[in-house]
Amino acid sequence: MNNNKILTTTMTTPAPKPLAFFERYLTVWVGLCIVGGILLGKIAPGVAKTLDGMAVYVDGAPVVSIPIAICLFFMMYPIMVKIDFASVVRAGRSGKPVLLTLFVNWAIKPFTMYAIALFFLGTLLRGFIGVDAMDWVKIPFGLDLPLGAEHGAGTVVLHEGMKMLQIPLWRSYLAGCILLGVAPCTAMVLVWGYLARGNDALTLVMVAINSLTMLVLYGVLGGFLLGVGRLPVPWQALLLSIAIYVALPLVTGYFTRRWIIAAKGEEWFKEKFLRRLNPIPVAALLLTLVLLFSFKGEVIAGNPLTILWIAIPLFLQTILIFALTYWLAKVLKLTYEDAAPAAMIGASNHFEVAIATAVMLFGLSSGAALATVVGVLIEVPVMLMLVGFCKRTTHWFDRAPGPVESGRN
Predict the structure, then answer these.
(1) pTM
(2) Which domain, by its residues, includes 90?
(3) pLDDT digits (tens, 9 = 90+) for 313-353
(4) CATH number at residue 276
(5) CA–CA distance, 67 with 52 (Å, rounded to integer)
(6) Which long-range contacts (CB under 8 A, 24 or more apart) does 157-165 make?
(7) Is residue 204 part of a domain?
(8) How far from the centroid of its chain's Cα atoms is residue 138's Cα?
């Protein structure tokens, strides 16, 4: 018998019910939240700027946005508290989906991102970006180059009283795309897998393994593709984001589950407590959208076409990696519950780490930093579209027998 079919997530969830109001019209709410966020950023820029400034900074780079961290906690906590952690141990023995995720994330995704971004930004859209358009970025760590010296594709110049490296603008955008391509998602994928009714225990295992793999391969692959040797890894940013976005809701959910079942019993936990939590992840996701687009309202209004040019390769890369992983999951005969999160984790990006690295390497006002921000803006709507696609194609896969992640409302 296929081991993937028997390694299911034993979850304490209510019986299957129709989609709740929020989920049934999720596309409408997403559109309204994006528009509302942009309007908030335009109408009340002071409020949006204050909220955006509430962050944990590392070396001058905003690593953890406090408002976004709060929203993510309320997205993650209801997911974590539902997980029976005995199922995590069983899911950890399921080799195929974990190996598939590692293969796509580290052997394919960084290189397809480089190729797609280079083709679109460096060739097809270069005329729209500006053939002679330039960007000024930080001089690479450890180098003391004189004015006029050439380094890679750039030249050392004096810009606003500081020695900077002048490079073609499209190359700066390319660098930001590369940083997104070498940073697979380790937090939000739990939300995407949850909404797609995937195997949450397996998703948690894949998140843990990818987080550990990032510590080794992020700097090596990023440095190789950027042509800077070994990329300086933002260890503090990486560890902080994992601790706040994953570990905190995980530990809180684990102990909440134990305490409530011990005090009230499993039936009360399932029938009362979990039902009250059901609307919270989607509501927190929608609030996150409002915040993200309000923070960047001025950027969107000031650079609409630039954002479009950067968004095109990022969108195509997301679709390509999702489609490839989903197809390979079908070839490997994974159940739907394992295939959906495996495809999601490759398609989405760890944008907090990408932004922190772009700011550290190139500067806060660089084109590379802007490209990572565009990654944030398009990720949520695109991933929600892919969640919908997964739910419409469950019949392409075998379903896991026994209790699974259905009935979320």
Answers:
(1) 0.76
(2) 3-132+170-396
(3) 999 999 999 999 999 999 999 999 999 999 998 898 877 77
(4) 1.20.1530.20
(5) 8
(6) 160/136, 163/139, 164/136, 164/137, 164/138, 164/139, 164/363, 165/136, 165/137, 165/138, 165/139, 165/140
(7) yes
(8) 26
